[in-house]
């Protein structure tokens, strides 16, 4: 039996596929949080980005590359537009970041704008016409293990690697990146240095929203592909992405590993069903697909607990001003 | 230039004017959204009002929609009051439904017929299981400092899958395997007839659960504004450090408030079973998203238990109108969009409660200050 057909390799390859939307969204949230703004609206922005991206592939006619590029762009813009609401409310209107983010998820999510948008335009009835296919890099897709896992993925996956590197370098090696960190750690000092705190926060919340929108589009253009009403398309990935930022101690390169770990957990139930492994297990709770479907969420709780007990005292990596509105007169 | 000054006192009329203004702005924004998607604004609003409140039987239906979100709204309000962001009311309500239906089936098996007994037992069973599910993030927050927002949310998904498992993928106690329809399509056992909660009134039908919710709201109001417990909660909310210096036991408060929040959400689950569905229905419960709507209700009520009652009826009316009107002219999702816009406007409006806007002209160097800045200084 070919090693590439084993359950392990299938799960690993799917882990990269399912981890990619998490990675995009987590990198976006990381940028926003590094500037000091917690955005709990990731789930909503992803759902809306997924709907808009899918709509573009239905409306625009042309070759796959142009249409898909346009769809990803549109998903990014729509995610940024949603984030703009949060940015305005929390930065300009000084509203609670937690409540505003929750409001954004409710507004944009599966019972709100993305459902409205999708049902008005009948997206659910349209079959997928353009979607991201896997690229066989250098014809190496049959290389044992590495082939299917790393060298036979979609453009989105390769783009996410470039993005991870870019975010990591941006935050550690560029003037702007250092300024963002100053804004997130000590906005009053940053302000005194002449860094525009509000501008930096707006820009990073918007970019974060754009990445969340693109993360959502990974589902409707690559993983599913298609659009379904409700929140099952993204199904909590936005929240896992927020947790990922904590796991990764606000560092981009660690987001990548975390995303693939949770991607593997998300892929597990599908892989188990596809391989028929579940039917070979003894009857009872172990055979229930729900057990495996609930696993990513339960494990998020476990990892959060481990992280918080191990690092509670040092607050490793968390921006000091995260969640605190900056008001120059009241510092 | 526009400056914001923190208000030292808040004139009474502002408490009326700001929410009213926020609502007006929300309706205006909503009008733009409706226009942009090609719907008539005024007639949509009139239809909503009729279907939600003034139409024949509309208000009774509104109370049915308002009942679960009254509970989840209160659950969110009591926790958010202490800056404890329990967004797990969704899952706690599922567990409440599981507990209440278990008790009702048990009592039915023993041949109980007294409805008051069922009501009390179901509230207890549902409330306890809801509190148990809320205590998981509560304990983690109190003893491991784990962010309760993420854990309580993740547990919603776990609870949802558990519910699905009970009815769809196991031969659990709750699943109906004996009847013919139960064998063709998975469904929960029907509750015994005594477990159907009564309704009150004829022209306007009030479900018993709604009255229970009002009683819970009154209790929560008393607890938070008239007792030492409530005082300590508000001190912890405003300044955890001051509370610690004053010797308040933050950990116990976290556990107590989470348990209370879960208890209320759990009773909400019991009321769903007793008042409306009379069976454990995973799909219906998960589609309704009562827990998340409860957050909207609590935030709009600014976490005041009495205000929650009114907001729950308003939002319940909106949801009920959404169900009634759903169709080509009124696509699904519109109600969620409206709720979101109202909440955004309310959040933005908060600024005007806390700050006053001062529009001043920049002082000219030679002419000295203008009258406006003189008044400010």
Structure description:
The complex is a heterodimer of chains A (331) and B (377). By secondary structure, chain A is mostly helical. Chain A is 68% helix and 1% strand. Chain A contains 14 helices and 2 strands. Chain A has helices spanning 7-34, 42-59, 64-92, 97-108, 113-120, 146-151, 155-173, 175-185, 187-192, 197-223, 237-247, 252-275, 277-280, 289-311, and strands at residues 135-136, 152-153. A two-stranded antiparallel ribbon of chain A has the order 1-2. Chain A is globular and about 70 Å long. The N and C termini of chain A lie far apart (66 Å). The model of chain A has no long low-confidence stretch (mean pLDDT 89). Chain B is built from 16 helices and 4 strands. With 377 residues, chain B is mainly alpha-helical. In chain B, helix 2 crosses helix 14 (305-325). The relative contact order of chain B is 0.20. Chain B has a two-stranded antiparallel sheet with strand order 1-4. A two-stranded antiparallel sheet of chain B has the order 2-3. Chain B starts with a strand and ends with a helix. The longest helix of chain B is centred in the middle third of the chain and has 30 residues, at 115-144.
Short description:
The complex is a heterodimer of chains A (331) and B (377). Chain A has 331 residues and is mainly α.
**Assembly type of the shown chains?**
heterodimer
Q: What characteristic shape of chain B results from the CA principal axes?
A: globular
Give the spatial strand order of the biggest sheet of chain A. Answer: 1-2
- Share of helix of chain A, binned: 55-70%
Radius of gyration of chain B from CA coordinates: 24 Å
Q: Shape of chain A from CA axes? A: globular
Q: From the helix content, strand content and strand pairing of chain B, which structural class follows? A: mainly alpha
Strand order of the largest sheet of chain B: 1-4
Low-confidence stretches of chain B: 367-377
Structural class of chain A: mainly alpha
The number of helices of chain B is 16
Overall average pLDDT of chain B? 90
Distance between the termini of chain B: 15 Å
* End-to-end separation of chain A: 66 Å
């Amino acid at each position: 039996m070919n090693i590439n057909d084993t359950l392990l390799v299938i799960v690993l390859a799917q882990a990269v596929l399912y981890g990619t939307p998490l990675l995009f969204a987590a990198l976006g949230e990381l940028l926003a949080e590094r500037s000091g703004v917690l955005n709990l609206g990731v789930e909503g922005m992803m759902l809306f980005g997924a709907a808009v991206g899918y709509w573009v592939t239905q409306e625009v006619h042309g070759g796959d590359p142009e249409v898909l590029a346009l769809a990803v762009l549109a998903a990014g813009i729509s995610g940024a537009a949603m984030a703009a609401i949060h940015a305005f409310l929390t930065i300009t209107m000084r509203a609670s970041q937690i409540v505003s983010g929750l409001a954004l998820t409710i507004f944009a999510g599966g019972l709100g704008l993305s459902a409205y948008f999708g049902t008005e335009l009948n997206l659910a009835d349209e079959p997928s016409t353009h979607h991201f296919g896997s690229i066989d890099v250098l014809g190496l897709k049959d290389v044992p293990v590495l082939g299917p896992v790393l060298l036979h993925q979609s453009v989105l996956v390769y783009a996410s690697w470039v993005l991870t590197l870019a975010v990591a370098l941006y935050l550690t090696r560029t003037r702007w990146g250092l300024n963002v960190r100053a804004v997130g750690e000590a906005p009053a000092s940053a302000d005194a240095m002449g860094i525009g705190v509000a501008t930096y926060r707006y820009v990073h919340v918007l970019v974060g929203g754009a990445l969340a929108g693109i993360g959502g589009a990974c589902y409707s253009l690559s993983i599913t592909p298609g659009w379904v009403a409700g929140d099952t398309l993204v199904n909590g990935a936005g929240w896992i992405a927020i947790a990922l930022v904590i796991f990764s101690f606000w560092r981009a390169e660690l987001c990548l590993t975390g995303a693939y770990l949770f991607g593997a957990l998300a892929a597990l139930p599908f892989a188990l069903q596809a391989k028929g492994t579940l039917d070979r297990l003894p009857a009872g709770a172990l055979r229930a697909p729900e057990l495996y479907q609930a696993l990513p969420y339960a494990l998020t709780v476990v990892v959060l607990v481990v992280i918080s007990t191990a690092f509670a005292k040092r607050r490793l990596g968390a921006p000091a001003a995260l969640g605190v509105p900056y008001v120059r007169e009241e510092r | 230039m526009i400056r914001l000054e923190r208000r030292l006192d808040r004139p009474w009329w502002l408490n009326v004017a700001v929410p009213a203004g926020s609502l007006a702005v929300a309706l205006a924004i909503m009008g733009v959204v409706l226009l942009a998607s090609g719907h008539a604004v005024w007639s949509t609003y009139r239809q909503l009002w009729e279907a939600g409140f003034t139409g024949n039987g509309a208000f009774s239906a509104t109370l049915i929609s308002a009942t679960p979100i009254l509970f989840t709204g209160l659950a969110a309000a009591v926790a958010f009051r202490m800056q404890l962001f329990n967004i797990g009311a969704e899952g706690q309500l599922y567990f409440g439904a599981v507990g209440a239906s278990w008790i009702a089936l048990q009592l039915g098996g023993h041949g109980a017929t007294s409805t008051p007994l069922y009501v009390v037992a179901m509230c207890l069973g549902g409330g306890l299981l809801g509190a148990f599910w809320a205590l998981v993030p509560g304990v983690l927050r109190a003893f491991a400092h784990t962010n309760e927002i993420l854990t309580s949310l993740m547990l919603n998904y776990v609870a949802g899958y558990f519910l699905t498992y009970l009815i769809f993928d196991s031969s659990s106690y709750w699943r109906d395997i004996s009847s013919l329809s139960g064998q063709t399509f998975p469904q929960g056992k029907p509750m015994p007839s005594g477990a159907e909660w009564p309704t009150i009134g004829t022209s306007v039908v009030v479900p018993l659960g709604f009255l229970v919710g009002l009683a819970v709201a009154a209790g929560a109001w008393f607890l938070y504004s008239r007792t030492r417990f409530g005082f300590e909660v508000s001190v912890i909310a405003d300044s955890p450090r001051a509370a610690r210096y004053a010797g308040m036991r933050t950990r116990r408060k976290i556990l107590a408030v989470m348990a209370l929040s879960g208890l209320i959400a759990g009773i909400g689950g019991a009321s769903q079973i007793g008042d409306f569905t009379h069976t454990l229905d995973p799909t219906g419960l998960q589609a309704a998203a009562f827990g998340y709507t409860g957050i909207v209700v609590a935030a709009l009520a600014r976490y005041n238990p009495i205000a929650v009652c009114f907001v729950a009826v308003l939002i319940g009316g909106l949801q009920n109108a959404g169900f009634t009107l759903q169709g080509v002219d009124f696509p699904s999702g519109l109600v969620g969009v409206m709720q979101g816009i109202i909440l955004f406007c309310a959040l933005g409006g908060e600024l005007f409660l806390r700050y006053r806007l001062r529009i001043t002209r920049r002082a000219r160097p030679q002419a000295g200050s203008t009258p406006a800045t003189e008044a400010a200084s």
